[in-house]
Predict the structure.
Amino acid sequence: MEKLELLAPAGNMEKLKVAIEYGADAVYFGGSSYGLRAFAGNFTDDEIASAVSYCHERGKKAYITVNIFPHNEDLKGLDSYLKF
């Protein structure tokens, strides 16, 4: 039987840390690009790098959201955005 993964939202670094410390196996969050939540408190590029490091140091997963339909002009930076 496969182990279930507890995935929690992380609206900011504080919420990410709480989710991990309280047992989440993984967290998901959005950056300042490629998201539909334009007015949400999204992670900056530096915060994304810190968040991913924080999760990986603890053996946890970090998922970054891409919830737009990218147009040609959006594709230029998408590959580097996904490599966090």
The beta strands are 7-9, 26-29, 61-64. The mean pLDDT is 87.
